[in-house]
Amino acid sequence: MNIINRLTNFKITSLVCLLLLSSLLSHQTLATTIQVETDRNPVNLNESFKITFTANASPDDDPDFSSLEQDFSILNQSSGSSSSWINGKSTKTLQWSLTVMAKHSGSLIIPVVKFGHDVTPPLSILVADAAVNKASNNDEDLFIEVEATSKNIYIQSQVLYTLRLYTRVDLSQARLDEPELADAVIERLGDDSRFNTQVNGLDYSVTERKYAIFPQKSGKLTIKPLVLTAEIITNSRPNFNGFFNSQTTKTKRIESKAITLDVKPAPAAFTGKHWLSAQQLLLKQDWSGDITQMKIGEPLTRTITLLAKGATVSQLPELNTTKSNEQLKAYPDQPVLQEQKKTDGVIAFREEKIALMLSQSGDYKLPAIQIPWFNTESQKIEIAEIPETTLTALAGAQPVVNTPVISPTNTQTLTTTLSPNTLPETNYWLWISVFLATGWLITVIVFLKTRTKSASVNINIDVKSELIEEIKALKKACAQNDATAAKNALIAWGNLSFDQSTLGGIAEYCDARLRDEILHLNHSLYGKASSEWQGKKLFQAFTENKARQKKSLEKDNSLEPLNRL
Prior knowledge:
This protein has helices at about 1-30, 410-415, 430-480, 485-500, 505, 510-525, 535-555; strands spanning about 35-40, 45, 50-55, 70-85, 90-100, 105-110, 115, 120, 125-130, 140-150, 150-155, 160-165, 170-175, 185-200, 200-215, 220-225, 225-240, 245-255, 260-265, 275-280, 280-285, 300-310, 330, 335-340, 345-360, 360-365, 370-375, 380-385, 390-395. It has about 575 residues and is α+β, with helices and mostly antiparallel strands.
């Protein structure tokens, strides 16, 4: 009896342990991934910045941000979500955005934040001492600061150009020049970032914008000063309906300093065929199958990828050096060229796919691929390399019999040899029947195409008229400051234009200003600290976004080739 009791207790204990282990494993399997990022790094002391937490699914619980309060002051926080339906699969993204300010300088750690059982990874950020003596006078209300990383550079190397607009006043309108530099490629990087800081003990709002500049010739090159023309609000008196304000403004014009770059030519030690400078470079190859057991006549695809940080896609050289011969046939595809503009520079991507097929058994060696490049971080010449690669075709595999290609001349020869005189007399009626049937078939096809075209035109007219009605509804809602009606009109417009049914999804298809206004509307409707919403800025941004879209479509008809060098 004691043995039976012990066995029973052992089974119960084992079952409980298995259940606990299963629960633990299932929780780990279902854990939500939460990413953490900041809008800038490094930052200055007494300067606000944003921390964004992004989850791919609903976490275990609401976030607990108390762990941040040891090193950071939380000034503001907001949250939002967006959903999408792609290829029959629903995806949801949730975001929590915090505006914070560091309590002291140094290399700080954004600690682990708990969302119930789900946690975020830690993230390091560098906080420099507070900025001082940037303004020419302590009472400057508006000034521009510009800087360029690495003024001594080599030709076609990336220069990061940053401008910051400091203001202590309200602006009704502002126009800022774009940077100009002859014989250079200039790319704007990402959207503007906004934060608060202190200069000489005074509080400023800062708008930061970044560019990547690639000088195309050597020598002394000067980036012209940027000129800002702004309408500064001096006072305002509210009108009777509260929608328009009677404002008094004054115009102020300021400019930044000029920056001179000392651009060096490519060093004499560089012997590569194509000059290429970058911060980082990655060269690799992938295969669609086993190159040690290829079958005669069956192709394998070789994918060669080149990734360069701090370079434009037009600087990347061709990668495929394989030529067809009696033993090896090579069929290259068109290369894939892409550029990604990050806040810390441009990332260029080139991918080439080549189908390779062996016609004989044995080994075949593909030569090594070498890309010489200049490392702008270490200031040294380096070589990215794919070593020599050996392909092996198995013996005994059946060779592929090449089907002769019939050229137009051969086709004509084949048809003329079969003249009507050589056909049996009984086939005349057969050919007449085929001719009549073909004519009837062509008539049916033309009728269906005409009908389909007419139907598509009607559909396009209907969609266009619906868009016009939704834009009218949005204009009316904005004039009346009706946030709910504006949301409904925007969702209807976004559903017709982009197949999006949420404000967050629609915002992703709009330019920076309209996106910010849509997200502001979303926060006003669903945020914890909702405020009275004004629709004037939203509809103004909507109108300008529509105008810019039309202008960009006109430009697309005359785009330059991607390889600009």
